[in-house]
Amino acid sequence: MFKVKRETSDGKLALILLLPSTLLILLLIGYPMLSNFYISFFEQPINPEFPAEFVGFENYIETLTNIDFYKSLGITLLYTLLVVVGSTGLGLYVAILFNRPFRFRKVARSLIILSYVTPSISLIFVWKYMFNSGYGIINYIGGDILHLFNQPPLWFDDPTSAFILVVLFAIWRYFPYAFIAFLAILQTISPTLYEAAEMDGANVWQKFKAVTLPAIMPVMLTVITLRTIWMFYMFEDVYLLTNKVNVLGVYLYETAFAFNDLGKASAISVILFLVISTLIIAIRKKVNLNASS
């Protein structure tokens, strides 16, 4: 009897303690999501003094029948795929290298994460300066020193080169996140496992496949999932670097604030939410979380 009363009292205390954070989540996340879903069924003017007009599923139909939306979706999926694979693979490779003892290892680790902790606007300014067609160091080295091209390329004005550069920028900018996560889990792997694998005659790839990969798999899934979400909604990096790569974040922003179509922008964001949710569920089903066991 006493035990039942104690469990009931603990349950009430837990609910009381969770109540502030629950209300905060509902206020900051739940209400904006519901409000966005509500607006997607209206032709919503920016001026709040003008009344909104209910249009039903018209915003969704216009979005799903617009070829520009699918072009932007394709660019976003390719951008997300390349950046997630690139930043995760590079982060893992550097983490394996830095998991070995060498001089100035702590200093080197600190330098690795500089690109991740530096504000985006500073990095974007540096990249635009480097690839400037008139005085950028890339055109100077490629044209004046190596003579690779006669006319300096307009790197951020050509859609293809601009897309390659925004992908490279994102891989370089965000691989330290994967590096930190992988390095932390690599340091928990016992060296005796590698020694046992060596005694069995395993080569480098076999040791990675049999020892390292199962141990880092849960962390890898988390890194891939979070990076996929973040890159799928990427806006500021691409928008500030160039106007030639129309990812969905840019497409949504221009729909809302360049064409003042808030209802359609809300419908696009709902569709994006469904797409990214489907992708995340597919990733979780594809990767075996129990591989480490």
UniProtKB/TrEMBL annotation:
<dbReference type="Pfam" id="PF00528">
    <property type="entry name" value="BPD_transp_1"/>
</dbReference>
<keyword id="KW-0813">Transport</keyword>
<dbReference type="InterPro" id="IPR050809">
    <property type="entry name" value="UgpAE/MalFG_permease"/>
</dbReference>
<dbReference type="InterPro" id="IPR035906">
    <property type="entry name" value="MetI-like_sf"/>
</dbReference>
<feature type="transmembrane region" description="Helical">
    <location>
        <begin position="110"/>
        <end position="130"/>
    </location>
</feature>
<feature type="transmembrane region" description="Helical">
    <location>
        <begin position="162"/>
        <end position="189"/>
    </location>
</feature>
<feature type="transmembrane region" description="Helical">
    <location>
        <begin position="12"/>
        <end position="34"/>
    </location>
</feature>
<keyword id="KW-1003">Cell membrane</keyword>
<dbReference type="InterPro" id="IPR000515">
    <property type="entry name" value="MetI-like"/>
</dbReference>
<keyword id="KW-0472">Membrane</keyword>
<keyword id="KW-1133">Transmembrane helix</keyword>
<comment type="similarity">
    <text>Belongs to the binding-protein-dependent transport system permease family.</text>
</comment>
<feature type="transmembrane region" description="Helical">
    <location>
        <begin position="77"/>
        <end position="98"/>
    </location>
</feature>
<protein>
    <submittedName>
        <fullName>Sugar ABC transporter permease</fullName>
    </submittedName>
</protein>
<feature type="transmembrane region" description="Helical">
    <location>
        <begin position="265"/>
        <end position="283"/>
    </location>
</feature>
<feature type="domain" description="ABC transmembrane type-1">
    <location>
        <begin position="73"/>
        <end position="283"/>
    </location>
</feature>
<feature type="transmembrane region" description="Helical">
    <location>
        <begin position="210"/>
        <end position="233"/>
    </location>
</feature>
<keyword id="KW-0812">Transmembrane</keyword>
